[in-house]
Structures are given as structure tokens and as C-alpha cells.
Amino acid sequence: MHKRLLIPGPTEVKSDVLKQQAKPLIGHRPKEFTELYTGIFDKLQKFHKTKQWVTVPTASGTLFMDMTARSLVKEKALCCVNGAFSKRCADTIKACGKEIEKIEIEWGKAVKPEVILEKLDSGKYDTLTLCHNETSTGVRNPIYEIGKAVKKEHPDIMYVIDSVSAMGGDKVIPEEIQCDLIYASTQKAYALPPGLAIGFVSDAAIKRCEEVPNRGRYTDLKGLYDYYQKKQQTPSTPNVSLLYALSYQLDRMLEETSEGRHKRHEEMAKWTQEWAKKHFEMFPEPGYESITVSTIKNTKGKSVAELNKELAKRNYMISNGYGDLKEKTFRIGHMGDWTTADIKDVCSHIEEIWEL
After folding, report:
1. Most exposed of 161, 234, 318, 339 (fewest Cβ within 10 Å)?
2. Is the pLDDT of residue 1 over 90?
3. Which domains does the chain have, with CATH numbers?
4. Among residues 163, 83, 162, 85, which one has the least CA distance to residue 128?
5. Which class for 252: exposed (0-12), middle (13-18), buried (19 or more C-beta within 10 A)?
6. What is the pTM of this model?
């Protein structure tokens, strides 16, 4: 029995989108592939209102953490850590042999521009990493405000953003954010199966790559860029079937418009937050709540694991808290193609099961 996924990803995928993967395969060198691939780039740039170069490697979004270390960090990165996934980025850069320093923020709190600027003024760092939407805590960091502040004072810093659980639902316009790399995965707000990553890359980031040796192969951002400029294709074999689905889904997203999709996610988030405050408490600090995943304090001390067993009987699944927050919080993913009516439905089941 299929459980409808209202977890922070993978999220539910429409049947017509899934069917796109059943198209006959094509090679990744003929003209047909070039048309598919360049068409996807055009659609992504149009949806996100950007002229930045975009790349869509066959990988999870985590690949871009390695790419950041291998292609952008020259010597030392300042990593903002306020949850599990921002910590993962910091740990990845360190594992690649680059020096890091963390700004550690209490889980549930957002990273503020003034804290970053205070650190950057030391001049010790060449790259800044930040998580747009910390999936473990449901905190939405102010990436636009941070970008404006950082680039005004430190224009040469590479500003890198993990937007894995936000981009495609939340508003992401790279030039307005002033980011050098912002990346996501297809299984979250784009409402596609896992397997593709999406990254927008600034001209300054490509130039930075030239100053960084030993970039590897799959993690060589400039290698991807150079190959695309020459061939409009990928240097290694991509997941063609998923690219069919992405192209189709982007048509749907463009029809909804980026403004419409953002508004729908805001509406889902607002309703969920009001519901949570009525029965529980929100985990993130006020004003910094995610619009794609709500992390809610389990103030009644009920079993989230048992709740999910009961929800499964009703064809639904939400998510327990992440790591140390397991059973202390629970998470409802309202991303992708869900609507407020769907969120109301699953919350009504939670009310019945927990007798709220």
C-alpha cells in the first residue's frame, strides 16, 4: 500500500511526471540529447529569473558540497552551522582537506548577517557556506539579507548556499541573492524522483575554479562548465530518463509561474504553522520558519513513531525529528506539488489519532 509522502523529501511525484521516465532512451552525444539538455537549462533560468550558468549533474545535492571544497575553497571556508545538514557541508569540506571554521548557532535559531560579518572581517576566509533551509530544524536562513551584507563588504568571498529542501518552492533568484553557487536536489520542492542535482553558478565562481588545483573529475565545476560551453552536453553519462521527467516538470512549473509556486508554498506553511501553534509549538525561532517543511515541537510527549504507523494505515507518512530531535519534534513536508487542502487532510488524521 502506497504511503503518500509528506516528509521533508523525497516528496510525492505526480503519476504523469513518473511516466516520463518510461520514454525510450537516447544516447547522450546525439543532437536529440543536446536539445533536451539545453532546453532544461533554458527552463531553469527562466523559472528562477537568472542569467547564471546552471548545471544538472546526475547525483544527489550532496555532490555540490564536495564541489565546493574541490573547486571553490582555496584555503579556508567559514561554515555556518545551525543544524545537521549545514554541519554535513562543513564536515565535507574538512574531509576534502580544506581548512574550515564554524559559526555554530543553536539548533532552532537562524544565522544572522552581523554574526557572519564579524567573522569575515578577519580576512582569513575565501568561501562562506550557508544552508538556506535547514531540513533538520525547519529554520529558513535569511539568504538575501546575508548576501547583500557579505558582498558589500567582502565581494571576493565565494557565497555558497545549500538550498536542497527549498529551491523550486521557495523564492530563489541567484542575482538578487548575490550567491556564487546555490544548489538543490530534484526530490524535494521540484517534486521529482531522487537522482539529479541542480546548481546555479556565477561567473566569479568559474573564475575562482582556475585558482584551485586538484579539482578532481566529477567534482570539477570548471570541467563541467568548459565541456558544456564546447558541446552543450555532459562529460559523463547522465540519467537521461530523469532528465525527461525534469524537462516535463519544469513545463508544469513554468505554467504555475515561480510567483504562483512560491505563494502556494507560503500558504501551506502559514496554515501548518497556525495549526501547530494551536496544538503544539513551532521549533524554529519566530520569523525564520521554513515554507517547505514545518518542524513542530512534540509538546504533548506522544510517540511520533506510533503516529506514523497509524498514518500508514491511512496512506500517509510524515517525519520524525532528526537526530537528537527524534521524538522531541516531528516534521511535515509541504513541498513540491502538495496543496493546502492536502495538508489539512493529513493534519486532520493526526488530530484523530492523537485525539487533539
Report:
1. 339
2. no
3. 4-11+258-354 (3.90.1150.10), 15-254 (3.40.640.10)
4. 162
5. middle
6. 0.97
